[in-house]
Design goal:
Layout lengths: L10 E4 L7 H4 L5 E6 L3 H4 L2 H8 L4 E5 L8 H14 L3 E6 L1 H15 L5 H7 L10 E5 L11 E6 L4 E6 L7 E4 L9 H19 L7 H23 L4 H14 L13 H13 L3 H15 L5 H11 L7 H18 L13 H15 L11 H9 L2
Helix pairs in contact: 4-5, 7-8, 7-9, 7-11, 8-9, 10-11, 11-13, 11-15, 12-13, 14-15
The structure holds 5,6-dihydroxy-NADP and zinc ion.
Length: 385
Amino acid sequence: MNNFEFFCPTKVLFGKNTISELPKLIDKSHRILMIYGGGSIKKNGVYDQVKKALEGYQLFEFGGIEPNPKYETCMKAVEMIKQENIDFLLAVGGGSTLDGTKFIAAAAKYEGDNAYDAILVREEPVKDALPIADVITLPATGSEMNNGAVISRLATNEKLPFHSDLVFPRFSIIDPQVTFSLPQKQTINGIVDTFVHVMEQYCTYDVNTPLQDDWALGILRTLINEAPKVLAEPNDYEARANIFWCATCGLNYWISLGAVQDWATHMIGHELTAFYGIDHGQSLAIVLPRLLKNQKVSKSKKLAKLAREVFGVNETVDLKAADKAIDNIEEFFNSIGMKTKLSDYEIDSMDAAEKIKDRFNKRNTALGEKGNITAETAFEILKNC
Ligand code: NZQ
Ligand code: ZN
């Protein structure tokens, strides 16, 4: 096992009717900006629950954070924060709303004139940020218990991540009941995103982390068992609760402690979203199977373990078991209604392969746990997508 540090200051309130606990968590002296997305919270009652819980608070609102949150929109919230002297941000929505809020928190305190270049392009360490918290409404990103965010820029078709301990949520409220209203497509996206988060942290090379591996495989098994239940019965509280906790634990980095991480599927997937606008979960479902085939030899031990322990594959030769793991993963995605080919989204694979190769060449990109996924390798992976 490799050395590791672990830090996560987020208080988690999980379960039914936890939104009503808000007053216990935020001091009344704050000038709070409630940040939300395109309006789902107004339809499913979450907005009303938050307003009721925070009655009597100095509460301001900023709506309109898009899926794949845009830098341009976030900067409008920063203006409002400065005008209204806001000192606490409450994200109410999915991962996009929360990621946007993380960036807004850092940009509001950034003293230079281009927060995008500093925080996202040059990845300068964030020196200060407003305190944030969230009511998370979509199980997928794990953003509710991590220090990361991914921001898109319309002007340049870019989608870039940043990390800072200063943007960990102070608290996250997770009431699985709020996910009853999710469109089926978003439920599926979230299940796939969680599955791939686990793969990025588990499916590399073995450095003897059996406990972390078992946690990782436990999340995959739970997803596979619970996914059909929520798809058949969207109001199944127990299944919704289990899926949500899988999502949170899938990216609070607990399963990666002391292990080696990959993240190449995500970085290639982000480019597909940046160029073609497909959902994050969809981009991952397309890239993962082809990336695993391309990297099968170096990942064979972990893939074989996954095949045997998650999919019950009875195959003693690791490379053959690895192939079966990849086939089973793609079949699982398809079985829950997730399409896994670029052509399913009317995207030409050669066009995508060329565009992303060019961009990775310009950035000198080298991805994956061994840094061996270069622009050329990404091209090979994408042309088979
Ligand atoms: O915008 P509203 O109207 O709220 O509707 C949203 C949106 O249209 C809707 N929705 C959310 N909760 C709902 C709901 N509709 C009904 N009922 C509810 N309870 O769902 C749509 C998608 O929401 P979004 O927030 O975009 O989805 P998700 O949570 O999957 O977030 C995706 C973003 O997170 C980033 C992705 O790249 C993408 O930009 N990621 C963030 C990570 C992190 N911070 O650690 C890691 C991930 O790998 C991921 O990259
Ligand atoms: Zn993801």
